Amino acid sequence: MSLAGQVAVVTGASRGIGKAIALELAARGASVACVSTADAGSSAVAKEIESKGGKAAGFACDVADAKAVEALFEAVSESLGPPAILVNNAGIARDTLVMRMSDEDWESVLSVNLKGAFHTIRAASKAMMKQRYGRIVNVTSIIGLYGGAGQANYAAAKAGLIGLTRSVAKELGGRGITCNAVAPGFIETDMTAELPEKFREFVCEHAPAGRLGTPEDVAAAVAFLCSPESAYITGQVLTVDGGLKL
Questions:
Q1: pTM > 0.90: yes or no
Q2: In sequence order, what are the residues at sequence separation of 6 or more whose Cβ sits closer than 8 angstroms to the Cβ of residue 53?
Q3: C or N terminus of the chain, fewer CB within 10 Å?
Q4: Residues 133, 146, 154, 232: which is the catalytic one?
Q5: Catalytic-residue membership of 154
């Protein structure tokens, strides 16, 4: 599943799942544009890729800002070349009960997690359509499939990503562009580091895999959907949760 000669854009690439995806795509030969809100984080990942013999560049961008995203893709094309791969991983959480949720809590999560993906897909699809080839992977969540108490904003955004994925798959499929989603379960990241120990024990007990996932587990699934071998898979949601929801 070589990605040699292809340019990949990975948002939310400074840590956790996004960093693992960027490293995995680079290991398979892609030139990776590592994107995060802060240049220091994305540049650090790009330098790590280059230290291993890969090609990468770091970019700072607020994906909720449409103009900033357009400028980002122009910069990526000038620096690395036109993108053939887009992974939408950027996301934030502002968890609280609906009755206590502020408009800002709602809007900020929807803006980054859902509108941000719309912005990047719109920008990336222009280059992909010219190439008549592309791979788009949106990182959603099992919360988007099943909901989560205290996570109405996050669940709505992640569920919206699934609808966006399927619509884009239908629109762009005729141009050799696929669009799929990966739905991680509970993964060992900064976002899940504060989970109560009892909850961790619950996951380990009820998931057939017997453990929480790793960012590398998700990265492997994403890399497959970014590969030429996944050409006949589009509009799908691949759950990476160790079988928790069986």
A1: yes
A2: none
A3: C
A4: 154
A5: yes
